[in-house]
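Anyone up for a design puzzle?
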């Protein structure tokens, strides 16, 4: 190995072959996350990650197509496996593998991945910090939490603002009788209520237009007052985005957007499902708050209707759903052609974080910032050997020239300490998936 421990001396990229793929599932990073490791015949390993709250089965089904392949042939392999991805968490397998392939290619050739994506467009990557406040609280409490982010050097912020804040306020929401009671149970996401994962999924899988849930004038008053209290603490100079509006109707989103115009919101995120293009057009044209979506869209083709119809002002792909690093770079490029700003969703481990940073480094003028959702996870950075702190200084990530993603080795002791009890096992054997077969062709 070299002094940095990344590239194996005497390795031959043209002779590099994939020999294995293994996984570890962890919790609280801040989400449930799955890290994957692709191993090779030359001792070089590549790290990837399956999207948060997804499942390694989406990657395991593809392993049979990877064994014996040269991981440096990223484009060809991606063209073969992309049919096995889908929107939302279903894109996690293909995307996580693609990230690991780029990590391997960079390590094999001794260059950082951003160089393989076209080279650096910028040295420093702006990071915006998502912020949560647990339990019952008000806008002033959220404002204080956001202010602490600012004191750490973050130059952009995001917070949740939606129906969860209204569940205990009588008359703030309108819905068929009994629905709000179910929402109160499901919003806690605690199985202690006897709720199964399937029941939770069935309840949450009803698209916004069909829930018949709306925000009343009383609810709108509360949310506007909440934002006013936040702004009274953090001021008006820093961009503030909002997320998790809730599964409410289009009309409620329009009313809320109009109420929030005077608070200079950076964007309202995922107000309605991403595939309702005409509703996004109507929402964007009905108020002056920029609209944003994209974290659940797989492949660039999924973004095209939104871009062509000028339906949003900001796109927000997650590389672990979108199809990986190169696909996300292409998505940002297409958005730039349509005059749409690009930000990157990220609620992952250091693997997903660094993958997003490399894409951001190579992205064009329309890139604004990438998300960081783990500010309050004290052990997050310790997953990587040699990291003494998260690689964020004064709200920016500074890129270096370490090969691949810039991560040589993960710390197994830290991973074991936070392993998912429902999916235990550290880098366990997956050879049972090596020789599975299916007639994958999608045409005759």
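Challenge accepted. My sequence:
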């Amino acid at each position: 190995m070299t002094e940095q421990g990344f590239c194996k001396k005497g390795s031959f990229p043209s002779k590099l072959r994939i020999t294995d793929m293994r996984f570890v599932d962890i919790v609280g990073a801040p989400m449930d996350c799955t890290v994957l490791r692709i191993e090779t015949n030359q001792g070089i390993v590549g790290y990837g990650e399956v999207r948060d709250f997804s499942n390694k089965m989406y990657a395991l089904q593809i392993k049979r197509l990877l064994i014996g392949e040269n991981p440096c042939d990223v484009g060809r392999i991606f063209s073969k496996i992309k049919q096995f991805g889908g929107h939302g968490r279903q894109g996690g397998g293909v995307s996580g593998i693609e990230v690991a392939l780029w990590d391997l290619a960079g390590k094999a050739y001794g260059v950082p991945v951003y160089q393989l994506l076209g080279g650096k467009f910028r040295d420093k990557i702006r990071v915006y910090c998502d912020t949560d406040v647990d339990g019952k609280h008000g806008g002033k409490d959220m404002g204080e939490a956001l202010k602490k982010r600012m004191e750490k050097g973050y130059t952009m912020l995001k917070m949740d603002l939606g129906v969860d804040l209204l569940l205990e306020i009588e008359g703030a929401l309108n819905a068929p009788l009994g629905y709000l009671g179910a929402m109160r149970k499901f919003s806690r996401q605690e199985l202690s209520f006897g709720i199964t994962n399937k029941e939770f999924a069935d309840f949450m899988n009803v698209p916004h237009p069909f829930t018949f849930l709306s925000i009343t004038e009383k609810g709108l008053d509360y949310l506007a007052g909440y934002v006013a209290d936040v702004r009274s603490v953090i001021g008006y100079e820093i961009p503030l985005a909002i997320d998790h509006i809730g599964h409410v109707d289009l009309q409620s989103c329009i009313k809320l957007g109009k109420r929030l115009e005077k608070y200079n919101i950076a964007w309202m995120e995922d107000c309605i499902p991403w595939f309702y293009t005409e509703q996004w057009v109507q929402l964007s044209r009905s108020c002056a708050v920029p609209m944003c979506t994209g974290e659940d869209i797989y492949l660039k083709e999924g973004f095209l209707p939104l871009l062509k119809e000028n339906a949003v002002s900001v796109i927000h792909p997650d590389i672990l759903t979108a199809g990986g690093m190169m696909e996300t770079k292409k998505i940002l490029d297409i958005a730039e052609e349509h005059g749409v700003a690009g930000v990157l969703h990220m609620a992952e481990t250091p693997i997903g974080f660094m993958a997003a940073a490399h894409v951001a480094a190579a992205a064009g003028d329309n890139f604004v910032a990438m998300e960081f959702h783990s500010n309050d996870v004290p052990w997050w950075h310790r997953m990587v050997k040699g990291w003494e702190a998260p690689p964020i200084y004064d709200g920016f990530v500074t890129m270096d020239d370490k090969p691949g993603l810039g991560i040589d080795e993960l710390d197994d002791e830290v991973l074991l300490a936070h392993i998912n009890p429902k999916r235990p096992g550290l880098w366990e054997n997956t050879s049972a998936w090596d020789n599975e077969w299916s007639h994958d062709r999608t045409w005759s």
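A detail worth pointing out: The chain has 15 helices and 14 strands.
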